[in-house]
Amino acid sequence: MPEPLLRLSPEVADALEGRSPVVALESTIISHGLPRPRNLEVARELEELVRAGGAVPATIAVLDGVAHVGLDDAALERVACDPDLRKLGYRDLPPAAATGAGGATTVSATAFLAARAGIRVFATGGLGGVHRGWADSWDESADLALLSRTRITVVCAGVKSILDVPATLQRLETLNVTVAGYRTSTFPGFYLHSSGEPVDWTLTEPEQVAAAMRAQDALDGPAAALVVANPVPVERQLDPGLHDRVLGEALAAAERQAVTGQATTPFLLDYLVRGTGGASLEANLAAVRGNVALAAEIARCWAAGPR
Ligand code: PSU
Ligand code: MN
């Protein structure tokens, strides 16, 4: 991509040049997924976690029409504090560039920009997917289609539990996105350790994940992602009874208030934070921290091996 549309921070450019480990981080979780002012602390903390894991963090966002891969602290602050920042999926990147708009990038936009920059490992909280009531709304996150066409490893705690999880797993299968549980044989449930759904493959070491990535390249099939589904530890999960009760209320409130489209996910996540007295936020953060730490380990194995 021409330099004016995609800008790598000097640190990220150096790391990629030297084949050092890099972990991409998304910005929608910061701008739309977490309450202020905690979100800025978290954005900084996640970058520190990547560094502590021996990799370079590359938080991705669009500022004044330019996609930035690797943000300095002022940019991170803008992402966390600007209430007018838009939520940009992959398809929003061209008009954002044309109009000079800014926005936080979702999994779809972040995965695309990371891969474009040459970053192979990406950490987030939970993927978007097929929403409940999809048969009427046709609401399926653009994350899925993008991941079916992008060779990137996404470390996540499964898909957000506000979604129709079995339907999302079906779609991931149809789209040829490889899904593996990390040290688990059930698909994680985002706020919950397990969604109760089985997962076909279990990988147990970062080196094994890197080996799967190398196999993707050796096979050289259609580009698709590797989803590493890493559960939140049981002792840090949201109480399942509380989760089910408040999620039921959240879904009912979304329906009553006719919340649709891009607003749906932020509305439900925010409802859960308030309805659980902040407990869902702690479970969400525990999941993200675990994913970021694991992503750094995977990035190190990936960078160390043959390519
Ligand atoms: N993970 C989190 N919190 C979030 C998200 C992921 O822990 O807010 C964001 C991601 O950016 C993901 C988006 O791409 O939610 C999905 O939104 P939608 O369902 O509108 O595609
Ligand atoms: Mn949607």
UniProtKB/TrEMBL annotation:
Its cofactor is Mn(2+). One of its GO terms (molecular function) is pseudouridylate synthase activity. InterPro entries: Indigdn_synthA-like (IPR022830), PsuG (IPR007342). Binds 1 Mn(2+) ion per subunit. Mn(2+) binds at residue 139. Keywords: Glycosidase, Hydrolase, Lyase, Manganese, Metal-binding. The active site is at 26 (proton donor), 160 (nucleophile). It is an enzyme of class 4 (lyase). SUPFAM superfamilies: Indigoidine synthase A-like (SSF110581). Belongs to the pseudouridine-5'-phosphate glycosidase family. Homotrimer. This is Pseudouridine-5'-phosphate glycosidase. It comes from Thermomonospora echinospora.
